[in-house]
Every structure is written in C-alpha cells, then in structure tokens.
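thought: fold this chain, then report.
action: predict
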Amino acid sequence: MQSLFFFFVAALGEISGCYAFWAWLRLGKSILWLIPGLISLIIFASALTKVDVSYAARAYAAYGGIYILFSIFWLWIVEGVKPDRWDLLGATICLLGTMIILFAPHRNPV
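observation:
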C-alpha cells in the first residue's frame, strides 16, 4: 500500500525533526541543528498529504501507530536503548489501531 510508504517517510521526518529540537534544547547542540530539523518537519507534513485517505484527521489518526513504531526503532537505533517488552506490546497495540482505521469499512470513503 502506497500510503504506508508515505507514513514511513512522515515518521522519519517527524522524529528526526523533533529530535533536532531535542538535541538543541536538551543536549546542548548548536542552534544549527534546527536547519535540518525544520527541513525534516516540512518533509513530514508534506508526506502526510500524500496518504490516500479522504479526511486529514483519519490520516493523522492512522499515522499515530506508525509514528509510535518508528519512535521505538529510533530509541533503539539512534539513542542506543533496546526496547523492552512493554515498548513492543504498546507499539503492537497501536499498529493494530492503525490497521483498523485504514482498512475498516468506513461510512465515508477512506
């Protein structure tokens, strides 16, 4: 499904963009971190407009599970913290919600 690709691009853009602000404000990195951070956030917002749903709010709701999954990967790969079973269970539940939102027969077209 092409929408999943755009969800993945959005998640990478949002997490990396927000992390740039985190690095600047919480880790003492240079304010120049905001330049790639802002570009990443633009990519995030643009990618969500490409998702094949009829309503913006439904795209945002479905995206939430993908964002959580990518956040867990970010925790592991970038921050070096291995997710525990509760992280994985929470992400799994959220992904189930994403699938329900995307594939359920809504009254309004998806």
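thought: worth noting. The chain has a mean pLDDT of 93.
final: tokens above.
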